[in-house]
TrEMBL record:
Residues 3-315 form the FAD-binding domain. GO terms for molecular function: FAD binding. It comes from Fulvivirga marina. This is NAD(P)/FAD-dependent oxidoreductase. The lineage of its organism: Bacteria, Pseudomonadati, Bacteroidota, Cytophagia, Cytophagales. It holds the Pfam family FAD_binding_3. It comes from the Bacteria. InterPro entries: FAD-bd, FAD/NAD-bd_sf, Geranylgeranyl_reductase.
């Protein structure tokens, strides 16, 4: 029987595996894709993770990520405000970031099962049986669910957040656009959505947006939606007209849900987006995935080294998860209400222009301390 199986190899799964290996525990990670690959993500990472990644010697400084210290918000009709970002962040593609973490995990001896999908997880007689599509099942003492915002495993496990259909889609491109300052992340509102742009590595920029599915239903396709809905914001119109788009077609995901989830479900320890997803405008999902990986791996190490009971492992992690993230997720959902409509986005710009105190307060509600 394996000690730990991690399902999903995004940042949550990779960092959990690295931390467990550092403590000498054997880990098997199952990932349905193979590295490197692109994901829908704004690719802005909050600096709160830097100290932790440096201490673990897994900070990807060799790719020279761009440093981001300012935020621009524009309203649906193009009004604009700038704010300094106290904590700041850096821009790096997931293609590079996840691949770098994967290589580090391989070097540390994590066992990878790639291009394989976990189809079911059962807990019986104090152990797990993980079914892998096209291969035989595996037994494990502990299973980490790091399978992201939405996986077929959620359905198989009958998770409650699926009951409510999500109205959002996410779209990502890499572009070249030298009109955008390197130290700036911009959030441009459009009707029923918002679009981020920031520099990543080399001379590339990430352009990523969250849109209500209804925008797409009213359009013939994504490009038509960008021409007729996103481009009503003059800042976005300029980007879509002048930038060079580097992908043949965009990366697209459906059904992005911000509903609350359980951090421990049917004894599976959930990590990253599988435990709860923060609204993308906060630019904090990756930092939360890494922070939850740190917290969870600490509890798993305690379980094995100090012979804690499973009950204690689950209740300690659940409690720590709630303290660290519950409020941030709630705040992110509330702040997202200021985005995506003409009236609310004008109010957001007004707050950013007139009250630095309120704007800073709102930003802090969705971020954690450096760790
Ligand atoms: C539009 C948008 C923009 C965003 N912008 C930002 C941003 O700028 N900054 C930021 O910090 N965050 C951002 N986020 C959030 C961020 O992308 C996530 O919070 C982060 O990727 C979570 O990492 P994770 O490891 O939990 O999940 P993921 O990175 O999604 O990884 C999950 C992995 O599990 C694998 N998997 C799923 N099911 C199975 C299965 N059954 N078997 C095997 N493998 C499986 C998947 O292939 C995937 O590799 C954004 C999100 C969206 C939707």
């Amino acid at each position: 029987m394996r000690k730990v199986i991690v399902i999903g190899g995004g940042l949550a799964g990779l960092v959990t595996s690295i931390c467990l290996r550092k403590a000498g525990l054997p880990v098997t990670l199952i990932e349905k894709k193979t590295y490197p690959f692109h994901r829908v993500c704004g690719e802005y990472i909050s600096n709160e993770v830097c100290g932790f990644l440096e201490r673990l010697q897994i900070f990807p400084d060799h790719v020279r990520p761009s440093l981001i210290t300012r935020l621009q918000i524009t309203s649906v009709n193009g009004k604009s405000a700038f704010l300094p970002l106290d904590m700041g962040g850096f821009g790096l593609s997931r293609f590079e970031m996840d691949y770098f973490m994967y290589q580090k995990a391989v070097d540390m001896g994590v066992e990878f099962i790639l291009q394989s999908q976990a189809g079911a997880v059962r807990f019986e007689e104090n152990k797990f049986l993980v079914d892998i599509e096209g291969a035989s099942s595996m037994e494990a003492e502990v299973v980490v669910g790091a399978f992201g915002k939405r996986s077929r495993l959620d359905k198989q496990m009958g998770r409650r957040f699926l009951v409510k259909r999500s109205p959002y889609i996410g779209v990502k491109y890499h572009i070249q656009y030298d009109q955008h300052p390197d130290d700036l992340i911009a959030l441009h509102n459009f009707k029923n959505g918002y679009c981020g742009i920031n520099k990543i590595e080399e001379d590339k920029y990430n352009l990523c947006y969250l849109s209500a599915r209804s925008n797409l239903s009213k359009s013939s396709d994504i490009s038509d939606m960008e021409d007729h809905i996103l481009s009503q914001n003059p800042h976005l119109k300029r980007i879509f007209t002048e930038a060079k788009f580097l992908f043949e077609r965009p990366e697209v995901i459906n059904e992005i849900s911000f509903e609350t989830k359980e951090s421990v479900d049917q004894h599976v320890l959930m990590c990253g987006d599988a435990a709860g997803m923060i609204t993308p405008l906060c630019g904090n999902g990756m930092a939360m995935a890494i922070r939850s990986a740190k917290t969870l791996s600490g509890e798993i190490i305690n379980y094995f080294h100090n012979h804690h009971s499973r009950e204690k492992l689950e209740s300690n992690y659940g409690q720590r998860w709630r303290v660290l993230f519950e409020r941030r997720l709630w705040a992110g959902r509330q702040i997202q209400k200021l985005f995506g409509s003409e009236h609310a986005s004008n109010l957001a710009v007004l707050i950013a222009r007139r009250s630095r105190f309120i704007a800073d307060f709102l930003i802090k509600q969705t971020h954690g301390e450096a760790f």
